[in-house]
């Protein structure tokens, strides 16, 4: 019988597991609290009877990823981590400090299948999905390293979260539980390149998280050049799915738009984008693209970026320009992992 990862279990699943062992359900709550505090050794669960601890040792385990490398930005104190998984795979995560607290950007997969041309995460393809516990442990390890509470989570690291739908939904339930990290849904953002069936499934769950859509182009032809997923789902279908999400959740959607010099940063692109998003409860986050060697993409000029924002704002679209964080430590998704994997 395969051992269960306790850190990947919701409170209810933990209680059911303990109940199935013939123990009182409240023991499940105690165990859930221990593992969500970052406890890795069953012997440290002081209020759990020894006999039960021994049974847990035989039948379960607690995810314990290792910190392989840490970089700290001299510019803004952004921290980037490489984590080593128990199967030898490498993932990465970032903690950024804002006025409102610490925001953790975590990975949901080892690598990525989506193939977006401007993203470093996808260069080696998809290796595997992460368990909910492996997502949880990224946060637990970063909190321990910082000795501070992380108050905001962004599922925007390596991987497409909705391509790992079941484990990501489990993670959301675990991280939000008041007996665990108790991070509010409104402090969690999930970023997707646009898997339409999963967007609709997520909408139906009515979990009040923030949804971010990686759009990056105002028309199908351009988007298909940049994002292979656009060949499966066109922009019209994507916008309809977003409107469905809005109907179900009434939560403002963020559209992410990575500006690439000479590709999608012209004034006419801004006009097309404003027409596309007209009347929606939304916000556009303009992202000066990170240089990815393999793609030959370059960042737009500040003049082009500011003009793009001006056009959108004049057309009534709330727009911000993302502040670059941790630029001196390659804090963008996938960059550090790729450098690590390609080292001599």
Automatic annotation (TrEMBL):
<dbReference type="GO" id="GO:0046872">
    <property type="term" value="F:metal ion binding"/>
</dbReference>
<keyword id="KW-0819">tRNA processing</keyword>
<dbReference type="InterPro" id="IPR004383">
    <property type="entry name" value="rRNA_lsu_MTrfase_RlmN/Cfr"/>
</dbReference>
<dbReference type="InterPro" id="IPR040072">
    <property type="entry name" value="Methyltransferase_A"/>
</dbReference>
<dbReference type="Pfam" id="PF21016">
    <property type="entry name" value="RlmN_N"/>
</dbReference>
<feature type="binding site">
    <location>
        <position position="119"/>
    </location>
    <ligand>
        <name>[4Fe-4S] cluster</name>
    </ligand>
</feature>
<feature type="active site" description="S-methylcysteine intermediate">
    <location>
        <position position="333"/>
    </location>
</feature>
<dbReference type="InterPro" id="IPR027492">
    <property type="entry name" value="RNA_MTrfase_RlmN"/>
</dbReference>
<dbReference type="GO" id="GO:0005737">
    <property type="term" value="C:cytoplasm"/>
</dbReference>
<feature type="binding site">
    <location>
        <position position="191"/>
    </location>
    <ligand>
        <name>S-adenosyl-L-methionine</name>
    </ligand>
</feature>
<comment type="similarity">
    <text>Belongs to the radical SAM superfamily. RlmN family.</text>
</comment>
<dbReference type="InterPro" id="IPR058240">
    <property type="entry name" value="rSAM_sf"/>
</dbReference>
<keyword id="KW-0479">Metal-binding</keyword>
<keyword id="KW-0489">Methyltransferase</keyword>
<dbReference type="GO" id="GO:0051539">
    <property type="term" value="F:4 iron, 4 sulfur cluster binding"/>
</dbReference>
<keyword id="KW-0949">S-adenosyl-L-methionine</keyword>
<dbReference type="GO" id="GO:0070475">
    <property type="term" value="P:rRNA base methylation"/>
</dbReference>
<dbReference type="GO" id="GO:0000049">
    <property type="term" value="F:tRNA binding"/>
</dbReference>
<dbReference type="InterPro" id="IPR013785">
    <property type="entry name" value="Aldolase_TIM"/>
</dbReference>
<dbReference type="GO" id="GO:0002935">
    <property type="term" value="F:tRNA (adenine(37)-C2)-methyltransferase activity"/>
</dbReference>
<dbReference type="GO" id="GO:0019843">
    <property type="term" value="F:rRNA binding"/>
</dbReference>
<dbReference type="InterPro" id="IPR007197">
    <property type="entry name" value="rSAM"/>
</dbReference>
<dbReference type="InterPro" id="IPR048641">
    <property type="entry name" value="RlmN_N"/>
</dbReference>
<feature type="binding site">
    <location>
        <begin position="214"/>
        <end position="216"/>
    </location>
    <ligand>
        <name>S-adenosyl-L-methionine</name>
    </ligand>
</feature>
<feature type="binding site">
    <location>
        <position position="112"/>
    </location>
    <ligand>
        <name>[4Fe-4S] cluster</name>
    </ligand>
</feature>
<keyword id="KW-0411">Iron-sulfur</keyword>
<feature type="binding site">
    <location>
        <begin position="159"/>
        <end position="160"/>
    </location>
    <ligand>
        <name>S-adenosyl-L-methionine</name>
    </ligand>
</feature>
<feature type="domain" description="Radical SAM core">
    <location>
        <begin position="98"/>
        <end position="328"/>
    </location>
</feature>
<protein>
    <recommendedName>
        <fullName>Probable dual-specificity RNA methyltransferase RlmN</fullName>
        <ecNumber>2.1.1.192</ecNumber>
    </recommendedName>
</protein>
<keyword id="KW-0963">Cytoplasm</keyword>
<dbReference type="GO" id="GO:0030488">
    <property type="term" value="P:tRNA methylation"/>
</dbReference>
<keyword id="KW-0698">rRNA processing</keyword>
<dbReference type="Pfam" id="PF04055">
    <property type="entry name" value="Radical_SAM"/>
</dbReference>
<feature type="active site" description="Proton acceptor">
    <location>
        <position position="92"/>
    </location>
</feature>
<keyword id="KW-1015">Disulfide bond</keyword>
<dbReference type="GO" id="GO:0070040">
    <property type="term" value="F:rRNA (adenine(2503)-C2-)-methyltransferase activity"/>
</dbReference>
<keyword id="KW-0808">Transferase</keyword>
<feature type="binding site">
    <location>
        <position position="116"/>
    </location>
    <ligand>
        <name>[4Fe-4S] cluster</name>
    </ligand>
</feature>
<keyword id="KW-0004">4Fe-4S</keyword>
<comment type="function">
    <text>Specifically methylates position 2 of adenine 2503 in 23S rRNA and position 2 of adenine 37 in tRNAs.</text>
</comment>
<keyword id="KW-0408">Iron</keyword>
<feature type="binding site">
    <location>
        <position position="290"/>
    </location>
    <ligand>
        <name>S-adenosyl-L-methionine</name>
    </ligand>
</feature>
């Amino acid at each position: 019988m395969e051992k269960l990862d306790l850190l990947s279990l919701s409170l209810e699943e933990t209680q059911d597991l303990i109940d199935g062992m013939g123990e009182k359900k409240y023991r499940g709550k105690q165990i859930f609290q221990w593992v969500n505090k970052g406890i890795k050794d069953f012997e440290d669960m002081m209020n759990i009877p020894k006999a039960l601890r021994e049974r847990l040792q035989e039948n379960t385990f607690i995810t314990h990823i290792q910190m392989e490398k840490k970089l700290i930005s001299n510019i803004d104190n952004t921290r980037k981590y490489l984590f080593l998984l128990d199967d030898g795979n490498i993932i990465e995560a970032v903690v950024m400090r804002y006025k409102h607290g610490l925001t953790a950007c975590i990975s949901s997969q080892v690598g990525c299948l989506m193939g977006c041309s401007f993203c470093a995460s996808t260069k080696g393809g998809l290796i595997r999905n992460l368990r909910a516990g492996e997502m949880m442990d990224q946060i637990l390890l970063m909190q321990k390293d910082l000795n501070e509470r992380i108050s905001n989570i962004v599922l925007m690291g390596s991987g497409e979260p909705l391509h790992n739908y079941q484990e990501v939904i489990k993670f959301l339930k675990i991280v939000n539980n008041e007996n665990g990290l108790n991070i509010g849904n409104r402090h969690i953002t999930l970023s997707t390149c646009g898997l339409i069936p999963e967007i609709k499934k997520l909408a139906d769950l009515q979990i009040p998280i923030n949804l971010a859509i990686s759009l990056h182009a105002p028309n199908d032809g351009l988007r298909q050049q940049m994002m292979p997923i656009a060949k499966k789902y066109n922009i019209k279908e994507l916008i309809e799915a977003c409107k469905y999400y809005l109907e179900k959740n009434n939560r403002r959607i963020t559209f992410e738009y990575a500006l690439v010099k000479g590709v999608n940063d012209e004034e006419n692109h801004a006009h097309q984008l404003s027409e596309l998003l007209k009347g929606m409860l939304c916000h556009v986050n303009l992202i000066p693209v990170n240089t990815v060697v393999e793609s030959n993409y370059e960042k737009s000029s500040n003049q082009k970026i500011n003009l793009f924002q001006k056009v959108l704002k004049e057309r009534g679209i709330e727009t911000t320009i993302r502040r670059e964080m941790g630029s001196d430590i390659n804090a963008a998704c996938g960059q550090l992992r790729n450098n690590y994997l390609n080292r001599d």
